[in-house]
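dude i think i finally got it to work??
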Amino acid sequence: MLSVLRNRTYRHLFTAQVAALTGTGLATVALSLLAYDVAGDHASAVLGTALAIKMVAYVAIAPVVGALAGRIPRRVLMVVMDLTRAGVALALPFVTQVWQIYVTVFLLQAASAAFTPTFQATIPEVLPEERDYTQALSMSRLAYDLESLFSPALAVGLLTLVSYNWLFAGTVVGFLASAALVVSVVLPKPTPVERMGSVYAKAAFGSRLFWATPRLRALLALDLAVAAAGAIVYVNTVVIVRDHFHQPAGAVSLALGAFGAGSMLTALALPRVLTKVSDRVVMLFAAFALPAVLVAAAAVTATDPGAWSWAALLVIWALIGAASSAVLTPGGRVIRRSAGDADLPAAFAAQFSLSHSCWLLTYPLAGWLAVGAGLPVTAMVLGAISLAAILGAVVLWPAHDPGRLDHVHTDLPVGHPHLVDARHTAGGWRHGHHYVIDQHHYTWPRPDGQLRHRAAAGHYRLFPGA
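look at this
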């Protein structure tokens, strides 16, 4: 897997991602301590609201950035967002009011919502070979998992030497290092975007792309399945460990570490697996494990705590991490296959926004259900949501899903450049190629290859003015 780091551009971008993630991890710990200083006993409420603001920023900002991606050089955009995050982090030690926490969190996460999809859309252009890109996706998954384990440990070590305000200085260094690494490389020139229409129409394109492409609709359903399973880990682990199993505070890190270890081991194995098995088979097989594991979680939390049930919980958390990684990591391959080069920023921005909408639903649900109905019911409800989402993905994602599709155009004039290899038939101009939704293909073809452009035009059009 490390062979992909021989590519200098990717090596610098990956290191930039690691630096930014480390800075974000330090900021997470420091922000929790800052909230306690400012709000005291109400710190949990403040952090809960801050988490909701983070998700709102992710959902709202990413599509707008996707719409503007063609107007701003990607390197400039990523560097500006890194500098913005560094500036916000630099201001955090001076925060003294709750509302100031909310404003700074929104600015910080809005910059992240602009940086991350742009970074994701750049990698497949830096690494055009499928094998290299698959390795890069696994490397990215490993970076996220290692950050979740390493950053808190680094923060604890630093807090033995300095006050938590200095953690924000570490955050600033992380973002500045990320900006410097991005500046140090020359990125491939992106394909010009040919979409027409208002900024709103361009911002909505990514979401409509997901709606019009069967495998992307299935990907969104799988994102919901992962969010349902992941929510019980991120929201309820501390309650399960401390209140149900009566374990010390350090055991919370152990449980989260088990989740991260399962995810990392899967990420390491995926590049080899995906050379032999299709994305669809891997993702659906892993997804079906999620509701089964959540049923096991319900059983464990419904029984009296003991040594066997504590060990079982760690195994369950590791399995959730492994299954989630197997679903999420190949998602970039699915998106890359389903969008033209020019539309990758919009596609990744839409996936970033829509997937976080799923978390915005499951996070509060996991918290409210745990308080009102108990942990076993919470696990069962989230398992039911996960199962329903997976069944939806099975229906939405055809088992036979070739990249090349034959189709008939009825809306393009004779001599149009797109019809250069088409043959005239009674129904229109027929040809075949790798099929994605773009300015010439508004809808997915019917089994007979007919494009429903005119029928769809009365309801919506992906490319207004095209």
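Residues 405-457 form one domain.
im so relieved honestly
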